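User: Can you predict the 3D structure of GTPase Obg? Sequence below.
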Amino acid sequence: MVSFVDEVRLFVRAGHGGNGCVSVRREKFKPLGGPDGGNGGNGGDIVLVADPQVTTLLEYHGRPHRTSPNGQPGMGDNRSGAMGEDVELPVPVGTVVKDPDGTELVDLAEPGMRFVVAPGGQGGLGNAALASTKRKAPGFALLGTPGFEGEVTLELKSIADVALVGFPSAGKSSLIAALSAARPKIADYPFTTLHPNLGVVQAGDHRFTVADVPGLIEGASEGKGLGLEFLRHVERCSALLHVIDCATLEPGRDPLSDLEVILAELGAYPVPEGQTPLLERPQFIALNKIDVPEARDLADFVRPELESRGYRVFEISTVSHEGLRQLGFALGELVDRARAEAALAPAPERIVMRPKAVDEVDFVVRPEGGSYGTLYRILGRKPERWVAQTDFTNDEAVGYLADRLARLGVEDELVRAGAVAGSTVVIGPGSGVVFDWEPTLTSTAELITAPRGADLRLDDNRRQTRAERRSDYHDRMDAKAEARAELEREREAGIWAEDESEQS
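Assistant: Sure. Here are the predicted C-alpha coordinates for GTPase Obg:
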Protein backbone atom coordinates (compact mmCIF):
# COMPACT_ATOMS: atom_id res chain seq x y z
CA MET A 1 0.00 0.00 0.00
CA VAL A 2 1.36 3.43 -0.99
CA SER A 3 1.96 5.71 1.99
CA PHE A 4 0.99 9.37 2.00
CA VAL A 5 3.58 12.01 2.86
CA ASP A 6 2.65 15.68 2.70
CA GLU A 7 5.68 17.38 4.29
CA VAL A 8 9.38 16.64 3.84
CA ARG A 9 12.74 18.34 4.28
CA LEU A 10 14.68 18.25 1.05
CA PHE A 11 18.46 18.64 1.07
CA VAL A 12 19.78 19.85 -2.29
CA ARG A 13 23.25 20.44 -3.68
CA ALA A 14 23.54 21.90 -7.15
CA GLY A 15 26.52 21.18 -9.38
CA HIS A 16 29.64 23.32 -9.13
CA GLY A 17 30.94 25.25 -12.11
CA GLY A 18 34.02 23.94 -13.90
CA ASN A 19 37.32 25.81 -13.75
CA GLY A 20 38.65 27.73 -16.71
CA CYS A 21 41.79 26.45 -18.45
CA VAL A 22 45.21 28.11 -18.74
CA SER A 23 46.76 27.07 -22.04
CA VAL A 24 48.94 28.55 -24.79
CA ARG A 25 48.71 27.36 -28.38
CA ARG A 26 51.80 25.42 -29.40
CA GLU A 27 52.18 24.61 -33.06
CA LYS A 28 55.16 24.13 -35.31
CA PHE A 29 56.35 27.36 -36.94
CA LYS A 30 53.86 29.34 -34.80
CA PRO A 31 55.71 30.20 -31.59
CA LEU A 32 53.30 33.03 -30.68
CA GLY A 33 50.01 31.18 -31.05
CA GLY A 34 48.45 32.98 -28.09
CA PRO A 35 46.22 31.73 -25.27
CA ASP A 36 43.67 29.05 -26.10
CA GLY A 37 42.30 27.94 -22.71
CA GLY A 38 38.57 27.15 -22.82
CA ASN A 39 35.85 28.08 -20.34
CA GLY A 40 34.48 25.76 -17.67
CA GLY A 41 30.93 24.45 -17.91
CA ASN A 42 28.10 25.60 -15.66
CA GLY A 43 26.86 23.26 -12.94
CA GLY A 44 23.44 21.65 -13.26
CA ASP A 45 20.35 23.20 -11.66
CA ILE A 46 17.84 21.37 -9.46
CA VAL A 47 14.32 22.23 -10.61
CA LEU A 48 10.97 21.45 -8.97
CA VAL A 49 8.16 20.76 -11.47
CA ALA A 50 4.45 20.61 -10.57
CA ASP A 51 3.27 17.29 -12.03
CA PRO A 52 -0.44 16.32 -11.94
CA GLN A 53 0.53 12.63 -12.03
CA VAL A 54 2.29 12.88 -8.65
CA THR A 55 0.08 12.82 -5.56
CA THR A 56 2.50 12.41 -2.65
CA LEU A 57 5.96 13.48 -1.48
CA LEU A 58 6.86 9.92 -0.49
CA GLU A 59 9.69 9.80 -3.03
CA TYR A 60 11.54 12.56 -1.18
CA HIS A 61 10.75 11.17 2.27
CA GLY A 62 12.85 8.09 1.53
CA ARG A 63 15.51 9.94 -0.48
CA PRO A 64 15.78 13.48 0.88
CA HIS A 65 19.24 14.22 -0.53
CA ARG A 66 19.39 15.27 -4.18
CA THR A 67 22.35 16.49 -6.22
CA SER A 68 23.01 17.60 -9.78
CA PRO A 69 26.17 17.05 -11.87
CA ASN A 70 29.11 19.43 -11.82
CA GLY A 71 30.30 21.35 -14.85
CA GLN A 72 33.48 20.07 -16.47
CA PRO A 73 36.70 22.15 -16.59
CA GLY A 74 37.78 23.87 -19.76
CA MET A 75 40.53 22.45 -21.99
CA GLY A 76 43.14 23.70 -24.40
CA ASP A 77 42.47 24.44 -28.05
CA ASN A 78 39.51 26.64 -26.99
CA ARG A 79 37.44 23.66 -25.85
CA SER A 80 34.83 24.53 -23.23
CA GLY A 81 33.88 22.08 -20.52
CA ALA A 82 30.58 20.21 -20.66
CA MET A 83 27.58 21.68 -18.87
CA GLY A 84 26.12 19.79 -15.92
CA GLU A 85 22.66 18.41 -16.70
CA ASP A 86 19.68 19.88 -14.86
CA VAL A 87 17.82 17.57 -12.46
CA GLU A 88 14.01 17.88 -12.52
CA LEU A 89 12.10 16.75 -9.44
CA PRO A 90 8.35 16.20 -10.00
CA VAL A 91 6.15 17.26 -7.06
CA PRO A 92 2.37 17.26 -6.62
CA VAL A 93 0.38 20.25 -7.76
CA GLY A 94 -0.22 22.40 -4.69
CA THR A 95 3.25 22.00 -3.19
CA VAL A 96 4.53 24.99 -1.24
CA VAL A 97 8.30 25.47 -1.02
CA LYS A 98 9.70 27.14 2.12
CA ASP A 99 13.19 27.99 3.31
CA PRO A 100 14.51 26.77 6.71
CA ASP A 101 13.14 29.93 8.37
CA GLY A 102 9.60 29.15 7.18
CA THR A 103 9.47 31.88 4.52
CA GLU A 104 7.43 30.82 1.49
CA LEU A 105 9.53 30.78 -1.66
CA VAL A 106 6.95 29.64 -4.22
CA ASP A 107 3.53 28.01 -4.43
CA LEU A 108 3.39 25.45 -7.25
CA ALA A 109 -0.38 25.70 -7.60
CA GLU A 110 -0.63 25.18 -11.38
CA PRO A 111 0.39 22.13 -13.43
CA GLY A 112 3.67 22.62 -15.23
CA MET A 113 5.00 25.34 -12.94
CA ARG A 114 8.77 25.22 -12.51
CA PHE A 115 11.01 26.57 -9.78
CA VAL A 116 14.81 26.44 -9.66
CA VAL A 117 15.30 25.48 -6.03
CA ALA A 118 19.09 25.14 -6.32
CA PRO A 119 20.92 27.04 -9.10
CA GLY A 120 24.14 25.52 -10.36
CA GLY A 121 27.51 27.22 -10.14
CA GLN A 122 28.91 29.40 -12.89
CA GLY A 123 31.79 28.10 -14.97
CA GLY A 124 35.08 30.02 -14.90
CA LEU A 125 36.54 31.82 -17.91
CA GLY A 126 39.66 30.44 -19.54
CA ASN A 127 42.69 32.58 -20.32
CA ALA A 128 41.57 32.91 -23.95
CA ALA A 129 38.43 34.77 -22.82
CA LEU A 130 40.49 36.93 -20.43
CA ALA A 131 42.96 38.07 -23.10
CA SER A 132 42.84 41.67 -24.29
CA THR A 133 44.96 44.09 -26.28
CA LYS A 134 46.87 44.98 -23.09
CA ARG A 135 46.88 41.52 -21.50
CA LYS A 136 47.80 39.38 -24.48
CA ALA A 137 48.75 36.16 -22.71
CA PRO A 138 47.10 35.82 -19.28
CA GLY A 139 48.79 33.27 -17.08
CA PHE A 140 45.64 32.58 -15.08
CA ALA A 141 42.00 31.57 -15.45
CA LEU A 142 38.90 32.00 -13.31
CA LEU A 143 37.66 29.21 -11.08
CA GLY A 144 34.12 27.87 -11.20
CA THR A 145 31.76 29.03 -8.47
CA PRO A 146 30.08 26.50 -6.15
CA GLY A 147 26.42 25.63 -6.66
CA PHE A 148 23.71 26.24 -4.08
CA GLU A 149 23.75 23.84 -1.14
CA GLY A 150 21.10 23.87 1.56
CA GLU A 151 17.69 22.61 2.55
CA VAL A 152 14.09 23.51 1.81
CA THR A 153 10.75 22.28 3.15
CA LEU A 154 8.15 20.88 0.77
CA GLU A 155 4.61 21.15 2.10
CA LEU A 156 1.69 19.68 0.16
CA LYS A 157 -1.71 21.36 0.25
CA SER A 158 -4.26 19.29 -1.64
CA ILE A 159 -6.17 21.06 -4.37
CA ALA A 160 -9.81 19.91 -4.29
CA ASP A 161 -13.18 21.55 -4.86
CA VAL A 162 -15.00 20.13 -1.80
CA ALA A 163 -13.56 19.11 1.58
CA LEU A 164 -15.30 16.55 3.77
CA VAL A 165 -14.93 17.46 7.44
CA GLY A 166 -16.34 15.87 10.55
CA PHE A 167 -15.68 13.77 13.62
CA PRO A 168 -13.78 10.46 13.37
CA SER A 169 -15.95 7.58 12.16
CA ALA A 170 -18.57 9.96 10.79
CA GLY A 171 -18.46 8.14 7.45
CA LYS A 172 -16.30 10.50 5.38
CA SER A 173 -14.20 7.72 3.84
CA SER A 174 -17.34 5.71 3.08
CA LEU A 175 -18.90 8.78 1.44
CA ILE A 176 -15.93 9.48 -0.83
CA ALA A 177 -15.82 5.79 -1.76
CA ALA A 178 -19.54 5.88 -2.65
CA LEU A 179 -19.30 9.11 -4.66
CA SER A 180 -16.08 8.39 -6.57
CA ALA A 181 -13.72 5.63 -7.60
CA ALA A 182 -11.42 6.31 -4.64
CA ARG A 183 -10.87 3.36 -2.33
CA PRO A 184 -9.74 4.66 1.04
CA LYS A 185 -9.33 2.46 4.09
CA ILE A 186 -12.66 1.94 5.89
CA ALA A 187 -12.98 0.39 9.36
CA ASP A 188 -15.22 0.61 12.42
CA TYR A 189 -12.77 2.40 14.70
CA PRO A 190 -11.77 6.08 15.01
CA PHE A 191 -8.89 7.66 13.07
CA THR A 192 -8.97 5.05 10.33
CA THR A 193 -8.05 7.79 7.87
CA LEU A 194 -4.45 8.79 8.50
CA HIS A 195 -3.98 10.95 5.41
CA PRO A 196 -6.19 12.93 3.01
CA ASN A 197 -7.86 11.02 0.18
CA LEU A 198 -8.85 12.57 -3.13
CA GLY A 199 -11.67 11.39 -5.34
CA VAL A 200 -13.17 12.61 -8.62
CA VAL A 201 -16.98 12.83 -8.67
CA GLN A 202 -19.04 12.79 -11.89
CA ALA A 203 -22.62 13.96 -11.34
CA GLY A 204 -24.29 14.47 -14.71
CA ASP A 205 -22.40 17.26 -16.44
CA HIS A 206 -20.69 18.25 -13.20
CA ARG A 207 -17.18 17.01 -12.54
CA PHE A 208 -15.32 17.97 -9.37
CA THR A 209 -12.85 16.63 -6.81
CA VAL A 210 -13.51 15.77 -3.18
CA ALA A 211 -10.95 15.60 -0.36
CA ASP A 212 -11.47 13.39 2.67
CA VAL A 213 -9.63 14.97 5.61
CA PRO A 214 -8.75 12.95 8.75
CA GLY A 215 -11.30 13.32 11.54
CA LEU A 216 -11.39 16.43 13.70
CA ILE A 217 -11.90 16.46 17.45
CA GLU A 218 -12.23 19.24 19.97
CA GLY A 219 -8.88 20.99 20.31
CA ALA A 220 -7.67 20.01 16.82
CA SER A 221 -6.63 23.61 16.10
CA GLU A 222 -4.37 23.37 19.17
CA GLY A 223 -2.68 20.18 18.02
CA LYS A 224 -4.94 17.43 19.39
CA GLY A 225 -5.62 14.43 17.24
CA LEU A 226 -4.69 14.46 13.54
CA GLY A 227 -6.78 17.40 12.41
CA LEU A 228 -4.31 20.23 12.82
CA GLU A 229 -1.68 18.44 10.77
CA PHE A 230 -4.05 18.02 7.82
CA LEU A 231 -6.28 21.08 8.06
CA ARG A 232 -4.02 22.81 5.53
CA HIS A 233 -5.52 20.48 2.92
CA VAL A 234 -8.82 22.32 3.41
CA GLU A 235 -7.29 25.73 2.61
CA ARG A 236 -7.63 25.42 -1.16
CA CYS A 237 -11.16 23.93 -1.20
CA SER A 238 -13.95 26.20 -2.41
CA ALA A 239 -16.70 24.51 -0.34
CA LEU A 240 -17.06 22.42 2.83
CA LEU A 241 -19.34 19.45 3.43
CA HIS A 242 -19.97 18.65 7.09
CA VAL A 243 -20.47 14.91 7.48
CA ILE A 244 -22.36 14.34 10.75
CA ASP A 245 -22.88 10.93 12.34
CA CYS A 246 -26.51 10.52 13.37
CA ALA A 247 -25.99 6.99 14.73
CA THR A 248 -23.19 7.62 17.22
CA LEU A 249 -23.40 5.82 20.54
CA GLU A 250 -20.92 8.04 22.38
CA PRO A 251 -22.45 9.84 25.39
CA GLY A 252 -22.70 13.60 25.22
CA ARG A 253 -22.66 13.72 21.42
CA ASP A 254 -25.44 14.74 19.03
CA PRO A 255 -25.47 16.33 15.53
CA LEU A 256 -25.79 19.89 16.83
CA SER A 257 -22.99 19.64 19.37
CA ASP A 258 -20.75 17.91 16.82
CA LEU A 259 -21.34 20.74 14.35
CA GLU A 260 -20.53 23.38 16.96
CA VAL A 261 -17.22 21.69 17.80
CA ILE A 262 -16.22 21.42 14.12
CA LEU A 263 -17.16 25.04 13.42
CA ALA A 264 -15.11 26.20 16.40
CA GLU A 265 -12.02 24.32 15.18
CA LEU A 266 -12.42 25.58 11.61
CA GLY A 267 -12.78 29.15 12.88
CA ALA A 268 -9.64 28.85 15.02
CA TYR A 269 -7.51 27.67 12.09
CA PRO A 270 -5.64 30.61 10.49
CA VAL A 271 -5.62 30.64 6.70
CA PRO A 272 -2.90 32.40 4.69
CA GLU A 273 -3.33 36.08 3.96
CA GLY A 274 -5.55 36.75 0.97
CA GLN A 275 -7.63 33.56 1.30
CA THR A 276 -11.23 33.38 2.44
CA PRO A 277 -11.61 32.16 6.05
CA LEU A 278 -12.93 28.62 6.28
CA LEU A 279 -16.22 29.57 7.92
CA GLU A 280 -17.00 32.14 5.20
CA ARG A 281 -16.97 29.54 2.43
CA PRO A 282 -20.11 27.74 1.19
CA GLN A 283 -21.07 24.90 3.53
CA PHE A 284 -23.45 21.95 3.19
CA ILE A 285 -24.43 19.44 5.85
CA ALA A 286 -24.80 15.70 5.26
CA LEU A 287 -26.65 13.80 8.01
CA ASN A 288 -25.15 10.35 7.54
CA LYS A 289 -26.18 6.76 8.45
CA ILE A 290 -29.96 7.23 8.05
CA ASP A 291 -30.15 3.54 7.14
CA VAL A 292 -30.30 3.06 10.93
CA PRO A 293 -33.89 3.78 12.11
CA GLU A 294 -32.85 5.74 15.18
CA ALA A 295 -30.46 7.79 13.05
CA ARG A 296 -33.23 8.65 10.56
CA ASP A 297 -35.47 9.83 13.37
CA LEU A 298 -32.66 11.97 14.80
CA ALA A 299 -31.93 13.44 11.36
CA ASP A 300 -35.58 14.39 10.86
CA PHE A 301 -35.55 16.02 14.29
CA VAL A 302 -32.44 18.23 13.84
CA ARG A 303 -32.92 19.09 10.17
CA PRO A 304 -35.28 22.07 10.76
CA GLU A 305 -32.87 23.55 13.29
CA LEU A 306 -29.95 23.29 10.85
CA GLU A 307 -31.92 24.73 7.96
CA SER A 308 -33.01 27.66 10.14
CA ARG A 309 -29.31 28.50 10.52
CA GLY A 310 -29.00 28.83 6.75
CA TYR A 311 -27.44 25.46 5.92
CA ARG A 312 -28.58 23.23 3.09
CA VAL A 313 -29.07 19.78 4.65
CA PHE A 314 -29.02 16.32 3.00
CA GLU A 315 -29.98 13.05 4.65
CA ILE A 316 -27.77 10.32 3.21
CA SER A 317 -26.65 6.75 3.72
CA THR A 318 -23.35 5.52 2.34
CA VAL A 319 -24.56 1.92 2.76
CA SER A 320 -27.85 2.15 0.83
CA HIS A 321 -26.69 5.16 -1.26
CA GLU A 322 -29.87 7.00 -0.32
CA GLY A 323 -29.62 10.72 -0.98
CA LEU A 324 -26.20 10.53 -2.65
CA ARG A 325 -27.51 11.44 -6.11
CA GLN A 326 -29.12 14.65 -4.86
CA LEU A 327 -26.00 15.46 -2.84
CA GLY A 328 -23.74 14.96 -5.85
CA PHE A 329 -25.77 17.26 -8.09
CA ALA A 330 -25.99 19.93 -5.37
CA LEU A 331 -22.22 19.87 -4.83
CA GLY A 332 -21.66 20.01 -8.59
CA GLU A 333 -23.83 23.12 -8.93
CA LEU A 334 -22.05 24.71 -5.99
CA VAL A 335 -18.63 24.01 -7.48
CA ASP A 336 -19.62 25.35 -10.91
CA ARG A 337 -20.91 28.52 -9.29
CA ALA A 338 -17.68 28.93 -7.34
CA ARG A 339 -15.61 28.41 -10.49
CA ALA A 340 -17.64 31.03 -12.34
CA GLU A 341 -17.10 33.52 -9.52
CA ALA A 342 -13.39 32.75 -9.49
CA ALA A 343 -13.22 33.39 -13.24
CA LEU A 344 -14.76 36.84 -12.76
CA ALA A 345 -12.44 37.67 -9.86
CA PRO A 346 -9.53 40.02 -10.61
CA ALA A 347 -6.44 38.27 -11.82
CA PRO A 348 -3.66 37.82 -9.28
CA GLU A 349 -0.95 40.42 -9.23
CA ARG A 350 1.55 39.78 -11.96
CA ILE A 351 5.24 39.62 -11.22
CA VAL A 352 6.97 42.49 -13.00
CA MET A 353 10.63 42.03 -13.82
CA ARG A 354 12.38 45.39 -13.72
CA PRO A 355 15.98 46.11 -14.69
CA LYS A 356 18.50 47.10 -12.11
CA ALA A 357 18.18 50.68 -10.95
CA VAL A 358 20.90 53.06 -12.07
CA ASP A 359 21.66 54.18 -8.52
CA GLU A 360 21.59 50.67 -7.01
CA VAL A 361 24.89 49.87 -5.33
CA ASP A 362 26.77 46.67 -6.15
CA PHE A 363 28.32 46.34 -2.69
CA VAL A 364 28.49 47.87 0.76
CA VAL A 365 31.45 48.41 3.10
CA ARG A 366 30.54 47.84 6.74
CA PRO A 367 33.05 48.63 9.51
CA GLU A 368 32.91 46.13 12.37
CA GLY A 369 34.63 46.33 15.73
CA GLY A 370 36.54 43.43 17.20
CA SER A 371 39.08 42.36 19.78
CA TYR A 372 41.95 43.19 17.45
CA GLY A 373 40.64 46.48 16.07
CA THR A 374 38.25 47.54 13.35
CA LEU A 375 37.78 45.36 10.29
CA TYR A 376 35.98 46.37 7.11
CA ARG A 377 33.55 43.86 5.63
CA ILE A 378 32.64 44.04 1.92
CA LEU A 379 29.25 42.53 1.06
CA GLY A 380 27.87 42.31 -2.45
CA ARG A 381 27.05 39.80 -5.14
CA LYS A 382 29.86 40.81 -7.48
CA PRO A 383 32.75 40.99 -4.99
CA GLU A 384 31.76 37.69 -3.38
CA ARG A 385 31.54 35.96 -6.76
CA TRP A 386 34.85 37.41 -7.92
CA VAL A 387 36.58 36.17 -4.78
CA ALA A 388 35.16 32.68 -5.33
CA GLN A 389 36.55 32.76 -8.91
CA THR A 390 40.08 33.77 -7.89
CA ASP A 391 42.97 31.33 -7.64
CA PHE A 392 44.94 32.82 -4.73
CA THR A 393 47.96 30.65 -5.52
CA ASN A 394 48.46 32.67 -8.71
CA ASP A 395 49.86 36.19 -8.23
CA GLU A 396 48.51 37.41 -11.55
CA ALA A 397 45.01 36.23 -10.66
CA VAL A 398 45.22 38.09 -7.35
CA GLY A 399 46.30 41.25 -9.19
CA TYR A 400 43.38 40.83 -11.61
CA LEU A 401 41.01 40.60 -8.64
CA ALA A 402 42.50 43.78 -7.17
CA ASP A 403 41.93 45.61 -10.46
CA ARG A 404 38.32 44.44 -10.67
CA LEU A 405 37.62 45.59 -7.13
CA ALA A 406 39.26 48.96 -7.83
CA ARG A 407 37.17 49.50 -10.99
CA LEU A 408 34.05 48.65 -8.99
CA GLY A 409 34.88 51.42 -6.52
CA VAL A 410 35.84 49.30 -3.53
CA GLU A 411 39.03 51.29 -2.92
CA ASP A 412 37.17 54.60 -2.73
CA GLU A 413 34.54 53.19 -0.38
CA LEU A 414 37.21 51.77 1.93
CA VAL A 415 38.83 55.20 2.14
CA ARG A 416 35.46 56.83 2.90
CA ALA A 417 34.83 54.23 5.62
CA GLY A 418 38.13 55.16 7.29
CA ALA A 419 40.37 52.28 6.18
CA VAL A 420 44.11 52.88 5.95
CA ALA A 421 46.97 50.84 4.58
CA GLY A 422 47.25 47.65 6.60
CA SER A 423 43.60 47.59 7.69
CA THR A 424 41.92 44.19 7.86
CA VAL A 425 39.37 43.69 5.08
CA VAL A 426 36.93 40.77 4.81
CA ILE A 427 35.01 39.99 1.62
CA GLY A 428 31.81 38.04 2.17
CA PRO A 429 29.76 37.03 5.22
CA GLY A 430 31.13 35.00 8.11
CA SER A 431 34.83 34.26 7.97
CA GLY A 432 34.95 35.15 4.27
CA VAL A 433 38.30 35.99 2.67
CA VAL A 434 40.54 38.05 4.96
CA PHE A 435 43.50 40.14 3.82
CA ASP A 436 45.43 43.25 4.79
CA TRP A 437 44.47 46.13 2.52
CA GLU A 438 47.29 47.74 0.55
CA PRO A 439 46.11 50.48 -1.85
CA THR A 440 49.23 50.08 -4.00
CA LEU A 441 47.89 46.75 -5.31
CA THR A 442 45.20 48.33 -7.44
CA SER A 443 46.61 50.07 -10.50
CA THR A 444 47.57 49.27 -14.12
CA ALA A 445 47.95 45.50 -14.00
CA GLU A 446 47.74 45.44 -17.81
CA LEU A 447 50.85 47.64 -18.15
CA ILE A 448 53.06 45.55 -15.87
CA THR A 449 55.50 43.35 -17.76
CA ALA A 450 56.06 40.22 -15.75
CA PRO A 451 56.17 36.48 -16.41
CA ARG A 452 52.81 34.75 -16.78
CA GLY A 453 51.32 33.95 -13.41
CA ALA A 454 53.29 36.70 -11.62
CA ASP A 455 52.47 40.24 -10.54
CA LEU A 456 55.38 42.49 -9.65
CA ARG A 457 53.13 44.54 -7.39
CA LEU A 458 53.07 41.64 -4.97
CA ASP A 459 56.88 41.60 -4.61
CA ASP A 460 58.61 43.50 -1.79
CA ASN A 461 60.15 46.19 -4.04
CA ARG A 462 58.45 49.30 -2.72
CA ARG A 463 59.56 52.52 -4.40
CA GLN A 464 61.31 55.07 -2.14
CA THR A 465 59.52 58.26 -1.31
CA ARG A 466 61.06 61.73 -1.88
CA ALA A 467 61.80 62.14 1.81
CA GLU A 468 63.56 58.78 1.94
CA ARG A 469 65.71 59.67 -1.10
CA ARG A 470 66.62 63.05 0.46
CA SER A 471 67.60 61.32 3.70
CA ASP A 472 69.79 58.82 1.84
CA TYR A 473 71.48 61.69 -0.05
CA HIS A 474 72.23 63.57 3.15
CA ASP A 475 73.64 60.41 4.72
CA ARG A 476 76.00 59.93 1.75
CA MET A 477 77.13 63.55 1.88
CA ASP A 478 77.80 63.27 5.62
CA ALA A 479 79.83 60.10 5.06
CA LYS A 480 81.97 61.82 2.39
CA ALA A 481 82.56 64.85 4.63
CA GLU A 482 83.62 62.57 7.46
CA ALA A 483 86.05 60.76 5.14
CA ARG A 484 87.65 64.06 4.03
CA ALA A 485 87.97 65.21 7.66
CA GLU A 486 89.70 61.93 8.55
CA LEU A 487 92.23 62.41 5.73
CA GLU A 488 92.90 65.97 6.87
CA ARG A 489 93.56 64.83 10.45
CA GLU A 490 96.03 62.22 9.19
CA ARG A 491 97.90 64.78 7.12
CA GLU A 492 98.15 67.18 10.06
CA ALA A 493 99.52 64.35 12.19
CA GLY A 494 102.36 63.94 9.68
CA ILE A 495 101.37 60.56 8.41
CA TRP A 496 101.44 61.66 4.77
CA ALA A 497 104.84 63.56 5.19
CA GLU A 498 106.66 60.47 6.53
CA ASP A 499 105.39 58.41 3.61
CA GLU A 500 106.68 60.98 1.12
CA SER A 501 110.19 61.04 2.71
CA GLU A 502 110.41 57.27 2.67
CA GLN A 503 109.41 57.16 -0.98
CA SER A 504 112.07 59.75 -1.88
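The first strand starts at residue 7 and ends at 13. The chain has four domains: 1-156, 162-344, 364-458, 466-503.
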